Known about the structure:
Layout: E1 4-13, H1 17-26, H2 31-34, E2 39-46, E3 55-62, E4 65-76, E5 81-89, E6 95-107, E7 110-121, H3 130-149
Antiparallel strand pairs: 1-7, 2-3, 3-4, 4-5, 5-6, 6-7
Protein name: Bet v I/Major latex protein domain-containing protein
Domain Bet v I/Major latex protein: 2-150
Organism: Turnera subulata
Amino acid sequence: xxxxxxxxxxxxxKSPADKFFKVFxxxxxxxxxAASDKVHSVxxxxxxxxxxxxxxxxxxxxxxxxxxxxxxxxVDEANKSFTMTAVGGHLxxxxxxxxxxxxxxxxxxxxLLAINIDYEKLKPExxxxxxxxxxxLSILKDVDAHVMExxxx
Length: 153
């Protein structure tokens, strides 16, 4: 029997909520510029950069291996949250379902990111995706630094 789980984390960033939110919901093509040691490319697979429901393919390195993550994004503009649901890629070889839920909360001059990774294992003995959470947090930190350096984003 598969086992569902959830991992949570919070991250304080310096970026204004609107600008940070925009990178992931409308400008994901900037992410490889911000985190080139981790994310090699982000390409539109179906749809476009700005439309919710579009599918993007991420190529990244984790634990020394190159992997692909195809995700469909859903966006809640009012609450500054987005959900990336896996629809293909290496993650689905180990997890029946996998989604990243991020909420960007304005806090002073910066923001607070609330991150959830919801998943369901294919096999009970499989480990929770702690390494993927660490990768996501590392990418988010890199994007924060990139946004702060590139005011035009």
